[in-house]
Structure formats: C-alpha cells, structure tokens
Amino acid sequence: MSHTHIHQSASESLWISSALILATLIYLRGLLRLHKHEHGKVEGWRATSFVFGLLFIWFATASPLAQLDHELLTAHMVQHLLLMTLAPPLIFLGLPRKALPYGPPHPVLCWLSAAGALVVWHIPPVFMLGMRSQMWHGIEQACFLATGLLFWWPVVRPWPRDSKWSEPSILLYLFLATLPCDILSGFLVFCDRVVYPVFLSSPRPFGLSALEDQQCAGALMWTCVTIVYLIAGTIFTMHLLSPHRSHQSQELARSEEVAIPQLDSRRIADPHNVEMEVI
Predict the structure, then answer these.
(1) Which of 177, 183, 188, 172 is nearest to 147 (CA)?
(2) What are phi and psi of 165, to 5 degrees?
(3) Per-residue pLDDT tens digits for 58-102
(4) Residue ranges making up the domain that contains 185
(5) Is 272 inside a domain boundary?
C-alpha cells in the first residue's frame, strides 16, 4: 500500500469518525427531547441499537480494519457485511417510531437494489475499480450502506404500522435475499483459483494464502448472512404464531359476528323502523 493511499485513508477516517460522532450526538440530543416530551415512553434500548449501528459503520470505514481491505478479501467481506447486513437493521431499530412517517419504496425495488449492489460490486473488473481508486472505493462503501438500508426498511418497518406488505411475504423476501449471497459465497468457497488477482501480490498479514483468504471470505459471508436472515425470519414466524396474535384475530372476528345481530335487533326493536319498512 502506497504512502499516498495511507495518507488519504487516515484523512478520510478522520472525517468519517467526526461525522459519526456528530450524528450520535444529534441523535442522543433528539432522543432526550423526545423522552421529555413523551414522558418516558421512549425505549432506552433504541439508543443502544442506533449507536451500535453507527459503531459498525465506523468499524467498516474508519477503523484499522478499513486499512486491511486492500490486503485481505476477508477484511473486505467483513466491511460489506457490516455495512449491508448488520448496521442498517440496528439503525432502523434505534429510530423512534415517529422518525419516518412514510413507508418505504416497493419491497421489490429494495430487494433488487441490494442484490444488484452485491452482484455488481463483486464482478472482478468493478471490484478492481474500487481497489485502485479511493473515490470509487468510497462510492462502493456508500452503495453498500444505502442499499443495505433500503433492503432492511421493509423488514424492520420503522414507520407507523399501516404497511400492506404482509409478514408471510417478508419471510419470502428474506429467503429470496439469501440466494444471491449463497451463489456468490459458494463460488468464492469452491472456486479453485483466485478470483481477484490483486490479492496475489498483497501482503499476507495472518499467513493465509490468497486462495485460503478467498475461501474464508466466502464462508464468512455464507455463515453471517444465513444466521442474520434466519434470526429475522424466526422473529417474524414467532410473531405470526404467537397466541396473542391469534387471540386478537379471534376477538376481532367475534366482535364482527356479534355486531351484525346487534344492529338487526335494534332495527327490529324500533317501531318507527318497522313502520318505515312496512311502508
């Protein structure tokens, strides 16, 4: 890695760290104001979730880990997972429910954006563009984070619960999202050659060969994505099968059944209505 690249990375890390610290302070200040206005109705765990989401962004873009992505594909994959898979849901979980009054774009668009970013940025010529240019490397990371936020928006749903996108559909959404990840990670794990030649000549910080590094990166992606999506899918499934949800549905159906004869009995009991119907 050249001295110029190191200098640019250090300067960029400083700006990113400052921006994330500022975002944290603004968020906490707004949360305290909302806490006072709502008289303690704001959950404290949301602040922890949001701060951890920003911390993961820092790890991916401004920590010493960010310096290793030009030497290890595994480090690059950790960055990708932090920006697309871990940070976005934590940030959305940390937002107060009133923060986003409008729903997301159509979930199909959200899914296609995330899948497209994953596939395009791992095509070897495009991948090399991000490795050789500091500007394109920043664009790549921003693209990962933006499409990650888009992908998780229909899942976490940080807006008033008036979405027409049903929970069973979200389970299908999550399952389909594993497919491009499985294809890419499986290719990296089982390929018998180094897909990105730039790592053939890079230093080997942990003694891994370039091919072993590639296999480790693919296995990490495969495992992490599967676990995170499985956790999200399990939460949705438990909510669908929860007794409380079933009891609410039964109560709603019972109230609708009772409401109809009550209306009829009132009409029959009123002599004026009877006279009007006879006439």
Answers:
(1) 177
(2) -85, 110
(3) 999 998 888 888 889 999 999 999 999 999 999 998 887 655 555
(4) 3-241
(5) no
